[in-house]
Amino acid sequence: MRHLLAGYAVVLMLFIIACSAIERNAAGLNGVRWVRRAFCVALAGLLLAMCQPFAPAFFSAALPQVSVFAALVLFRFAVEETLEHKTQHPYLSIAAGVAVFSGLLFCSAIHAHARTRIYVSDTADAIQAMMTAVVLFRSRNTALRSAIRTTGYLMAAVAVIHIFRIVAATVRPPQHGIMHADPFQAYFIFFNFTFGIGAGLSLIWLSFCCQRDNLQALALTDGLTGLLNRRAFEEALQRELVYARRYGKGTGLVLIDLDYFKRINDAHGHPVGDEVIRRVSAALQAGTRGSDALARFGGEEFIVMLRDTDPFHASTAAERMRMRVEALRGMPAGIQVTASLGVAVGDSSDTIESLLKKADDALYASKRAGRNAVTSHQTPAENIAAIADPQSELLAT
Fold it and tell me: Which GO terms describe its cellular component (predicted)?
């Protein structure tokens, strides 16, 4: 048995070295440092357990069981950091650790009783492993579902193993120490070690997946507003145009430009300008359907893609957006913001470039008409006019 435990210790050391190498070479990878700490604690407990029968029971039996509990707590911290969840009840875990330590001290040094020691340690370990599994299964990130579920099932398996050990200790109390374990205890050690290493590997996989997901989000979103950036928007628009041609649907674009925004930056500075951009983006987002796409198109420009629409309804939606921007209050330095909007609805012959050109032409028509207006490209050029009048037919709908 000592040789088998030595093999487990070597595997743990290799795993710890691998975690250290990953930390050095993959900056910003969440959770790995906690995994490394968890397995360092587990390795320390395993080395203490190998001291049987040369060391007192407290050092060679109780402290290794405390180390297993501590490793599970650290592993839960790793999961929460990886998923970017706030650590739940850290003081409760510390209090539970103190209770486990006290119980094992009593069962080892004061009143030696192996079965009670198993009851105390394995109950705490099972609860801790199940708490980690619950954190994983409650995650709603569908992009990481495979890695999350794999890690969650492995932690649930760890909890089940500890529950089985409690039942087995009730039916057949352990007669010998870890160096002379009976077959069930040997199997327990093997499966607990195997599932623990598997959970560690799975969590590192999850951490890489989370980092990839975050990098992809950074590549596709605007850092200031959290909206889609131009690249992501054009990809979504391309997919929508293909869908619209296939099913004969209309795709609308609303191009939005804040009026006199350069004056705001010049007069009040870029921090105030940034806050205005954030406030406007929040107002536009609140008035956009979930099926539509809103993006910051550059500088003070925003763009909205309206799915399955026609010129009238697209212009109506644009007018509501204009009113939302105009109604913003509580801006920094008492700034009053307005916006000019251009509307275009594509047909089966339109490409991204042609549809954007139509919306851009309509936007500049709004600028020429006096700003703070909505103009639709479908209106004949000589009759283009702002439709911001509250008595217009658009607002009556």
Answer: plasma membrane
Q: How far apart are CA 187 and CA 184, in angstroms?
A: 5
Domains of the chain and any CATH numbers: 2-220 (1.20.1070), 230-396 (3.30.70.270)
End-to-end CA distance of the chain: 81
Q: What are phi and psi of 86, to 5 degrees?
A: -70, 135
Q: What is the pLDDT of residues 71-124, one digit of tens each?
A: 999 999 999 999 988 776 667 777 777 777 677 666 666 566 677 777 888 888
The percentage of residues in the chain with a pLDDT greater than 70, rounded to a whole number, is 86
Element housing 282 (H / E): helix 270-286
d(CA 131, CA 129): 5
Determine contact, residues 136/148, Cβ cutoff 8 Å.
yes
User: Is residue 328 a contact partner of residue 283, using CB atoms and an 8 Å limit?
Assistant: yes
Find the Cα–Cα–Cα–Cα dihedral 71, 138, 295, 260, rounded to 10°: -80
Question: What number of residues does the chain have?
Answer: 397
Give the other-Cβ count within 10 Å of 17's Cβ: 11
Query: What is the H or E stretch that residue 183 is in?
Result: helix 183-220
Q: Record the tokens describing residue 236, joined without a space.
A: 């979504």
pLDDT for res 111: 60
Q: For the chain, which ranges sit under pLDDT 50? A: 179, 379-397
User: Tens of pLDDT along 264-321?
Assistant: 988 899 999 999 999 999 999 988 888 899 999 988 999 999 999 999 999 999 999 9
DSSP, collapsed to helix, strand or coil, labels residue 133 as helix
Q: Which residues pair with 294 in a beta bridge?
A: 304
CB 294 within 8 A of CB 304: yes
3-state SS class at 343: strand
Instruction: Give the whole-angstrom CA distance, residue 10 versus residue 389.
Output: 77
Euclidean distance between CA atoms 108 and 129, whole angstroms: 24
Q: Which amino acid is it at 250?
A: G
Query: Strands 374-376 and 339-346: what pairing?
Result: parallel
Residue among 392, 376, 390, 298 at smallest CA distance from 340:
376
- The position carrying tokens 């990481």 is 144
Tell me what pLDDT residue 381 has.
Answer: 42
